[in-house]
């Protein structure tokens, strides 16, 4: 009975201690501000937003101001001896303002449309990074919980086997059992000791993985509690999830924007064959000192307004080559989009089956846990009346501990599959994490 009590209370005790720590939302908040991968994605998104004003600039006026001032020291030596030469020193100054407004530049318009697709692409990439952060945080969180469960189970199992070992030794001393029972219990004890060491090592590794995301030492974590209530995905229709993924999956949206950009690139390169028309205006004011040729200083003001037409004729085949290159890249982008759609559909199907089968596995293991406990109780009773051996008891204990661990892992896998399903469908958000957080003992 002491072994059973140890098994029954070891995990709740560990859960109570962990429940004093951070919950899933707190860990997610810490990751949002500290995770380097997410921070890099946020910076990349901010950079991508600048593509739109850059593309728009090709449609707006451009203005430039130039000015100069120079000192001149001139010496005149006429070749005609009848003409008198001389030296002169004077200043020359000039200020010029030029404004150009594109009237017809199809390449610039194509670049502006490309900028819109680049902004859409950066939005989709950042949305994918945000969903990925949620999944990575949940994965790291439940990896730590599973590792903690493994350590607690190993300790409880070690305690139970230790008591069996002591009993086997006492029975051997009084002559009611053989040395075989003692050796079997000792072997199980040694193997379990090794398993506990491995479980502690795995726990440390999982903690470090979590620390890499939140940027600080991992706190205690709230465990999964009795409010955990798994259910079938909503809607419980795989076709609906596939349709949603093909429409909203972030990677599909990234590839769609990539195809739109490639199509605009074809247009932009073809536009290099077309003429361009610009309106321009220039105002300049210049002056030169009295030492200039002519003997007197002079100030000049110039105002020019006009339009300029440029017609490309031939560039050595460069434009045609760039068009062919753009067409090849467009075909590549189209194939990338098709691959993204197939991968999104595959991810949805895998996650959907993971949720459905995970729910069935949780229920099956809950029933198996009850059966394993009953089997252990019956085996202990059989040992007392002499119809079961020490080995039978040890095997029943091993089965019970393994079922407990499998059940914990099945619960965590169900949760992760649920989050991955929503991520594959493009709808994973913080609210979904809050629903999972409600299942924790806080």
Report on the structure:
The chain contains eleven helices and four strands. It is of the alpha+beta class and 442 residues long. It has one domain: Outer membrane efflux proteins (OEP).
Using the alpha-carbon principal axes, give the shape: elongated
Radius of gyration: 39 Å
Low-confidence stretches: 1-19
CATH superfamily name? Outer membrane efflux proteins (OEP)
Number of domains: 1
Oligomeric assembly: single chain
**pLDDT averaged over residues:** 89
* Separation of the first and last Cα atoms: 31 Å
Q: What about the largest sheet?
A: 4 strands, antiparallel
Secondary-structure class: alpha+beta
Q: Could you name the CATH topology?
A: Outer membrane efflux proteins (OEP)
Instruction: Report helical residue fraction.
Output: 55-70%
Strand content: 5-15%
Number of helices: 11
CATH architecture: Up-down Bundle
- Strand tally, please? 4
**Quick one: CATH class?**
Mainly Alpha
H/E topology pattern: HHHHEEHHHHEEHHH
Summary, kept brief:
The chain has a single domain (2-61, 106-272, 327-437), classed as Outer membrane efflux proteins (OEP). The protein contains eleven helices and four strands; from the N terminus they run ααααββααααββααα.
Detail the topology: elements first, then pairings:
Layout: H1 2-19, H2 24-34, H3 36-49, H4 51-56, E1 62-76, E2 86-104, H5 106-174, H6 179-214, H7 238-248, H8 250-270, E3 276-288, E4 298-310, H9 318-385, H10 390-424, H11 430-437
Antiparallel strand pairs: 1-2, 2-3, 3-4
Helix pairs in contact: 1-5, 2-5, 3-5, 5-6, 5-8, 5-10, 7-9, 8-9, 9-10
